[in-house]
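Appendix B: complex inputs.
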Amino acid sequence: MQPNHFLKAGIFAIVTIASLAVCWELYLRHKGYSVSYDDAEPLWADKRAEVYQPSNQATVFIGSSRIKFDLDIPTWEKRTGENAVQLANVGSTPLPVLDNLAEDKNFKGKLVVDVTEVLFFSTEKYSAGSSVEKIDYYKKRTPAQMASFQLDHLLQSQLVFLDKDFFSLNSFLNDLHVKDRAGIYGGPDFPWEFDKTMFNRQSKMDDRFVSDTNLQNRVRAIWGSLGKVNKEKPPTGKKLDSLLNAIKTDVDKIKARGGQVVFLRTPSTGPFLQMEKAGFPRKAYWDRLLAITQCPGIHFEDYPSIAHFNCPEFSHLAPKDAVVFTNHLVQLLEQKGWNFSHSQLAYSSHHQN
Amino acid sequence: MLFNSYTFIAFFLIILVLHNMPFPWKVKKINLLIASYIFYAAWNPPFILLLWLSTVVDFFVGRALYQQENKYKRKLLLVVSLIGNLGMLCFFKYGGFLLENFVTLVNALGIDYHPAKPSIILPAGISFYTFTTLCYTIDMYKRKSEPVKSMLNFALFVTFFPHLVAGPIVRPPQLVPQFETPRTATQKQLMQGLFLLSLGLFMKVVLADSMLSRPAETVFSSQSVLQSLDAWIGVLAFSGQIFFDFAGYSTCAIGVAMCLGFWLPQNFRYPYAAIGFSDFWRRWHITLSAWLRDYLYIPLGGNRKGEFRTYMNLMITMLLGGLWHGANWTFVVWGGLHGSYLCVERLFRPKKAPSDEVPAPETAPAGPVIEPVPVITTTASFAPAFFRKKEVQNFFWALFTFFLVNVTWVFFRSPDFTTAWRLLLSMFGGVSSGAAVLQTISIVKVAVITILMVASHWFLRNTTMLEVAAKTKWWIVGLVWSAMLLLLILSQESSSSFIYFQF
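Resulting structure:
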């Protein structure tokens, strides 16, 4: 062995890796990719820790992916003068998070619950999985994990190639699209342009997605395939009663501590909306939910100001529409009796100026 | 703090800089001790009190054991140490398990007793540091070595962060003398240490977590009977996952210690190239098997009290070894299967002079290890010449050993016997129509990694990675190192814990 054998090898490795990393990053940026955060347990837990702000300083949002796309957080914060804490989880029912907040005696704030019926009323284990895992992580989070998260955030905010959903070894292998045996479902294969995650956990479609119908059709096809894979029937009878009673119990606990809860049915369009209406008739699900919990609700179809949107892939709002939707949402919440630091008057005068 | 986390990288860089500053040796040791406590407290700060308690009690009890002449007082002191260490381990690790079994027993006897389920959090690495401190007090009782004179050295021996939470399990004579004289790594040691750290992280992050954990999880969490292919791929995935996870941790630990100028014993020597089970336990979790030999098997009588007692001792050692891994009967069965394999192997092995089964742990820096190759049964003379070659025969025996090891992993990984039994039925065609759960790409990944893993174990079985790297051209080592780092960057997942932390 030569005297500097490992030193030379180490320097070679560092130079090679540094060069490759720089080239890879420049290539991805040249291709139009930008930073997207890993929407995993650490980021969720970081936001979960923010729910203890006084009720006149923050509103917590729980639900599925729709509210992540439809709520434009900068607009919300500018409009209300308060923070938005986004705790919704993609492809997951919000009920475990509702229960977690209800059991937390220190949570006394404002809560908006997004209702995507097919997930909200699901009792299957998979639809709760993502939320349950995140809650579990939050409860067991160690000081080391919190510190790692801060360093991770620093790196993720600068480097596009750290997007594990699209630029990791596993994502490259999945991109090979090796044919599967009959009956195996490998999960949805969303295009990168569909969902960029911000540090505040807001999801945004890329401009290319909004303008490219091919990309939109790809996601529409995914909704179709998910519909075929999902064999769960909407709950009825005692199963539904028990689910609604559990929701009522949680909501009552939050209200008893001085908290406020509003249910929100975010927009969907086209065949997706038709499927939802057929599977979850409004009277049997939405109306009963509000009646049993005695909570105010905002259903997009009831308000012309938020009923006219066209979801590019039938289920989520484009970023520009999210801004409009958020402005109107604040207005509707104020009509329902919610107070925010920036009053409606201030908003109106600001817009007139 | 996990080795595979950004926090650790920042932490380690600070320690490395501090350790190479011109401070007196005592200051450097205090730095290392404080760093080790920070490393441990980063999981759950209150549990650091247990570590202090264990350190202080064993330091004074160990010294008293060595100095005390009255044999009754000596025994009393030993009992105090055993109760202190094992009592803590039993409470945190086996408390819930013991209560659950007690309730089952009394309910079976017709007594209606249903206590509330205890909520006990297992302190990280308790099984490892308990064994580290236990071997010190037992050695003091037997007067096998001198008591550690300095509390600082003893605390550092117990707490030294590279080995603290998942081994290698070190003995006082291996580590304490290294704290007595000033040490910093040479340039060669530093680079070798960094190479091992990269290799360990590659094994853990890329192979165990990114490639193998998901197929294993899919198969072991399935609630239905599976096709044989899926069941086998799931078990092979776990077989690779647990090796890369644990050997990856040990490799990181050895590398980190080496960067600071310290040597830790090797814990794995290509176990999937083992020819037979006594060979397997010379290669898998070496420091635990050596501990069990020295502090359990030999005190029980080893192989010195006749054939029957030897078999009994082997079984007791392996059953308790199984239980050490976790408070579940599935771990006991895992240990029992390994014990049975060892007994059968012993039964069919030609007689030789009595000797204990497992070699002593290393007390010097790792060098090439020449393994005694077990005697192979004669192949029929009409077999082709290729199959009569000893090397080929050994390879097939190694594959057979690997096959049996995989059967034991079913019990190790399954949460209960229902899952284990369902999986065994699926693996051995005991069901007519099983479900397919794995994607083709997962099957390909597991198959390729398993083949490469077994082949590399076989070809490297009598050497070490550092020796191979030293004999290879520097630019080839550089290329391999780059590839490992590149794959590490491409496998950035939210860091997951090491499997052995739960033991």
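Residues 345-353 of chain A have pLDDT under 50 and may be disordered.
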